[in-house]
Amino acid sequence: MTNQEFSDWWLSYRSNPKIPEQLREMEDYFIDSGLLVYSSNFWNDYNKLNIIQLTDYGFDNFKQTVTKNYFTWAVTIDHPYANNLKKLVPNLKMLFSTGKRVSQDIFNSLLEYLSVIYHCPMNEVSTIIEIGAGSGRTAFCFLSLNPDKKYVIVDFPPALYVSQTYLLDVFKDLKVMSFRPFESFDEIADEYSKANIVFLTPDQLGKIPDHIGDLFLAIDCLHEMKAARVAHYFDEAERLCSYIYYKCWKDTYVASDNVRHSEDSYPVHPHWKLIFKQPCVIPADFFHAFYKMN
Question: Hey, which residues does 243 pair with through a beta bridge?
């Protein structure tokens, strides 16, 4: 689905009275602000599907609907994927009975979290910025274990709506700066400084001051973007943070957008210090990398 086709579809669909009002406001901003130009045919298709599922089935069922369109799927405890998880998380079999279907997203998030904290001095990290956060699974893991950190999520709707609604529900005691339009950082500076969790769109990330973060996360998202957009986010990572962790397919081809990526195609800046770059144990067709930038 091209950008124009998505825009035309949304303009005809937005009057559906079942659409959550906050989702409608986010999608209107997405179209009106010009952000759509940074989307892709691939994600236009998925975003349309996700909006329809949220509208038809509601947010309460999101883990059975839209979350499976991000980085979540269900397997039985005897599935080969689960067997690999059992090797890494020995008490997994104690938690789930044979034959029960379980979601792997929390386990993946925990493995990503461990990969970071084993190599990153978390006492130097006060603010985490994550692009392409999907359902908010990684934020849930980090904030559950480090509720004192500030966590900034940057994403397009409807993913931004999903992660915001989900994290607002599970972290009721944390201060949240929900998405809202703004022209300059000065307008939100006070609210931003007091918030534990912040929700932004990609254009708003560019309005955030330099060196405001510490750790930049890009998990299961860069490989779907065009090369120029990946380069933009690597530049933003260096402008904003000291460390970057990213996780991608080893080899990617997105036919609908003619996008190709490999492990060595990502535009790592020459002066970045490699901490590690290695295959993921789970999923085995992914790799992850961690760099100190500043």
Answer: 215, 292
| Cβ–Cβ under 8 Å, residues 43 and 156 | yes
Cα of first residue to Cα of last residue in the chain, in angstroms, is 39
List the beta bridge partners of residue 64. none
pLDDT tens, 98-135?
455 555 677 788 888 889 988 988 899 999 999 999 88
pLDDT in tens, 210-232: 999 999 999 999 999 999 999 99
User: Full-prediction pTM beyond 0.85?
Assistant: yes
Domain ranges across the chain:
105-292
The CA distance from 225 to 259, in Å, is: 7
Task: Tokens for 231, please give them.
Answer: 């380069």
* C-alpha–C-alpha distance, residues 134 and 159, integer Å: 5
CATH class of 105-292: alpha beta
Give the side-chain half-sphere CA count within 13 A for 197: 28
